Amino acid sequence: MTRVAVNGVTGQMGGAVIEAATDSEVVVGFATSETSAVDGVPVVHPADAAEALREYDVDVVVDFAVPEGALIVAEACVDAGVPMVVGTTGFDEDGLARLQDASEEIPLLKATNFSQGIQVLQRLVSEAVGTLDDYDLELMETHHNRKVDAPSGTANSILDVIQEERDVEPVYGREGHTPRKDDEIGVLARRAGDIRGEHELVLAGNDEVLSLSHRAEDRGVFAAGALDAATWLVGHDAGWYEFGDVVDA
Ligand SMILES: NC(=O)c1ccc[n+]([C@@H]2O[C@H](COP(=O)([O-])OP(=O)(O)OC[C@H]3O[C@@H](n4cnc5c(N)ncnc54)[C@H](O)[C@@H]3O)[C@@H](O)[C@H]2O)c1
Ligand SMILES: O=C(O)C1=N[C@H](C(=O)O)CCC1
């Protein structure tokens, strides 16, 4: 059974990973809170992660925390030679570069969204944007009112897919007198209630509209995907991996 450490273990996703871990075992968690345990899982401060990875004989780390915390634990994973699955979003360019550096020493798999549906949505987006290459594009995401980063990592990943097909300029919200330019894509982030995650891309041409959308119903979909990725990653060589590698395996 794969022995998993969860970074961000006291959070919403940390709890979802613990709940979803049936074919894996969560043996330790990392968080900055004072909590000593969560659902029987011992909680260790991230500063002591390298020691804990050895003490608990961890096979792989699953991370759903904050960027600065993920980077601290990534250094611990390099120190201990433990693979890492990174689910945290909101990294800046320097943070992404530090994760790339870590992937030269350990197997590191990063995904902004661990649902298989979003993997398929991104492939559909690539096909649609490449075909309907003169349609207006607008992107909207909606998440719970505790989400602190915007737009979502998933929305940014969808933008990356679009940019591979068309040179578009994101416009993050609109107000006042702002005529739409042909090369722009409106990006809207909504925050409300406990919405788990909704994404929609609208492609609007003359006399027709194509809408591609995905809705996550429960955080368990992300947790299950991350745990599948974690089990898959163990035994791989050091390097940078993506969730599409797991879905296609
Ligand atoms: N990739 C995906 O599929 C996916 C799915 C859901 C959420 N997420 C991302 O996961 C992250 C966490 O989401 P959430 O809803 O669980 O958030 P949350 O706020 O509920 O939990 C964050 C956790 O990180 C902990 N934390 C804070 N600072 C820390 C540090 N320095 N070191 C270690 N842990 C620290 C908090 O104590 C908490 O346990 C966000 O970035 C979110 O966008 C990704
Ligand atoms: O709940 C969150 O926060 C989520 N974050 C990821 C993102 O930023 O895309 C995935 C969806 C849920």
Automatic annotation (TrEMBL):
Name the GO cellular-component terms: cytosol
Say where the protein is mainly found: cytoplasm
Describe the location of the Dihydrodipicolinate reductase N-terminal domain by residue ranges.
3-114
* Enzyme Commission number: 1.17.1.8
Q: Which GO terms describe its biological process?
A: diaminopimelate biosynthetic process; lysine biosynthetic process via diaminopimelate
> Mind listing the UniProt keywords for this protein, alphabetically?
Amino-acid biosynthesis, Cytoplasm, Diaminopimelate biosynthesis, Lysine biosynthesis, NAD, NADP, Oxidoreductase
- Pathway, according to UniProt? Amino-acid biosynthesis; L-lysine biosynthesis via DAP pathway; (S)-tetrahydrodipicolinate from L-aspartate: step 4/4
SUPFAM superfamilies in the record: Glyceraldehyde-3-phosphate dehydrogenase-like, C-terminal domain, NAD(P)-binding Rossmann-fold domains
The entry's NAD(+)-binding residues are: G8, V9, T10, G11, Q12, M13, G87, T88, T89, A111, T112, N113, F114
Report which superkingdom the organism of origin falls in: Archaea
MF terms from GO for this chain are: 4-hydroxy-tetrahydrodipicolinate reductase; NAD binding; NADP binding; oxidoreductase activity, acting on CH or CH2 groups, NAD or NADP as acceptor
Indicate the quaternary assembly.
Answer: Homotetramer.
Q: What does this protein do?
A: Catalyzes the conversion of 4-hydroxy-tetrahydrodipicolinate (HTPA) to tetrahydrodipicolinate.
User: What's the family?
Assistant: Belongs to the DapB family.
What is this protein's name?
4-hydroxy-tetrahydrodipicolinate reductase
The gene is dapB
